[in-house]
Amino acid sequence: MLEEIFSFDHLYLAYKKCRNSKQHKGEVIRFEVNLAVNLYSLNKALVTKKYKLGNYKKFFIYEPKQRLIEAYPFKDRVVIRCFCDIVLKPKIEKKLIFDNCACRIEKGTHFAIERLHKFMKKEFFKYNNNYIYFLKCDIRKYFASIDHDILLKLLNDIDFTEDEKWLIKILINNKNEGLPLGSQSNQWFALFYLNKVDHFIKEKLNIKYYVRYMDDFILISRDKKYLVYCKNVIEEMCLKLLKLELNKKTQIGRLSNGVDFLGFRHILTPKGKIVVKLRSSSKQRIKKHLKTVNKLYIKGIVDEDYVKQRLNSFYNHVKNTNEKKNFKNFTISLKDD
After folding, report:
1. Residue 263 has pLDDT above 90, yes or no
2. Can you tell me the distance from the alpha carbon of 132 to that of 205, in angstroms, rounded to the nearest whole number?
3. Crossing angle between the packed helical segments 8-19 and 26-33, to the nearest 10 degrees
């Protein structure tokens, strides 16, 4: 079985995907110098079950907030990419609900936002009013709180072979606790960890309008008391079944006042229109970043192409929102600072 999963052809395809846009990096170049030998060595180590993961490379990212990323060496990323494509993706996908939106093909942030908007509009047109409530749940330190033993037990519900379980245990138990950010396999494990909660919300609590993006999920209903009940049940289930806690961002509110989701505030108007605005913290972050870019341009550290690239990036971020009208004026005002 391992011979089929980690064949030379599969490892080579995974290598090409991993090197995409990273071919200039030193560890990629060093791996390529003896590409055939390195792929053969990985194949042999995996087939004989002598494979061991390397040490994490740690670094911080600061957008949208500070996070510690722990990335594997390039050779391990090739193995993980191969294993995810051949085993984890197809087998875990079958268990997930449709509206579990993160990191899946043809899904992602825009898909999740579109689903939320679709649910808001559907509920609005039942009675042609926006007297609708939401329950927004967020898990406290989600990746760091995932319990290895519970995760492995949950994964037993999937028809993994013994060979596949061998590598899964290596990937999960490589760190003493939690799952580090930065690994593709950890993304799939995190997608699946809340799967029983997803099915419980849809099938037992009978919430028709529900969407989840990793540990950020929203339930929509006209019955505020029922959402209070749902919150209590979900909180208890997360704690007892998964050893997870809801954080302080968990709240019940009215869609007419807006719900924060994936960096934007989504507001349902009395006429059924959805207004999408950047959260205040996001506005300040963008303004600060653009001012920095503007200063770097004035000092000649970055060129005009770089400035245009950054402006286009932020415009694409807000182009489907009600902020796009103000974005041009916002960026022009920076030139006067």
Report:
1. no
2. 17
3. 150
Q: How far apart are CA 148 and CA 230, in angstroms?
A: 27
Distance CA 162, CA 168 (A): 10
d(CA 31, CA 38): 7
pLDDT in tens, 130-177: 999 999 999 999 999 999 999 999 999 999 999 999 999 999 998 888
Averaged pLDDT for residues 64-89: 86
The residue among 311 and 246 whose pLDDT is bigger is 246
The alpha carbon of residue 177 and the mean position of all alpha carbons in its chain are separated, in whole angstroms, by 20
- Dihedral angle, C-alpha 330, 332, 335, 336, nearest 10 °: -80
- Distance of alpha carbon 45 from alpha carbon 52, whole angstroms: 8
pTM of the shown model:
0.85
Q: Please state, in angstroms and as integers, the Cα–Cα distance from residue 32 to each residue in 38, 74, 75, 106, 117, following that order.
A: 8, 11, 10, 31, 46
Q: What is the pLDDT of residue 65?
A: 60
